[in-house]
Amino acid sequence: MSEFIINDEDLSSLKGKVVVLTGGSSGIGLATVKLLLSLGASVVSGDVNPPPASESAETPAFLFVKTNVASWNDLTVLFKKAKEHFGRIDCIFANAGIGPRANYLALETDEQGNLKEPSHELMDIGLRGLINTASLAVHYMKEQPEGGSIVLMGSSTGLQPLRAIDYSAAKHGVLGFGRGLARVAEVAGVPIRINTLMPSWTTSNVLPDLEGLMRGISHVPQPALVVARAAAYLMVDGSRQGTVVYVADGKYKDIEKTILLPAYDAIKGEGNPSDDDVLKRLLELPAN
Question: Is 171 annotated in the active site?
Fold first, then answer.
């Protein structure tokens, strides 16, 4: 497993960068906003809630745009305003999310006694909203000679079975989307790096009174700043492309090339082509 350290000097090149992030008014997003501003970056934060009063002091380096990431229109406005205000977009952190919502074992009924469809609110925000955020990021950054960087907020829950099914399913989806988008960008020669974060329990607003609940079971979540530093690092480390970074107990581990890919290689067996290799050959067939 490839563990690495993030030093302060590793983040210094964020000075002067323009970063757009979602979910920047609380938790990991807010910690990232504070970190980026302290490093001299300009930040555009999209959130359904305004930033805390103590964080919303007038500064030319910060712009808040009220944004529901489940709304395509809201997201297009966020990116348009960011480009108009700062002239370019260097980095994206697709971070917005909510806690578990759906119950798949006990369906609710409406006033007429009819069964109601399970909630897809978390999927709309944590997966579809993330996909749309990344798609808009590609649109805005691919024409820039210097390209850009996209960091996707996944979760360690996307690596394991979890009884919060909608949350886990969304994060499994983020992992698959991030790994696939990175591969497509490489093949297409698009100058955009795509990396995925998979943090374990972290201080955030995903669950009400998370810190209080954690104290009740004697478990200490890692501070949001730990994950914020990983997001900032992936924004500027040009050697990171298509990586999956696990963050737990304040430690950073790149698990794509050391765990995930080797596990698949072992499963498919020596000498067998990967599914992506087969797809590549299919796409290269001459058109009829």
Answer: yes
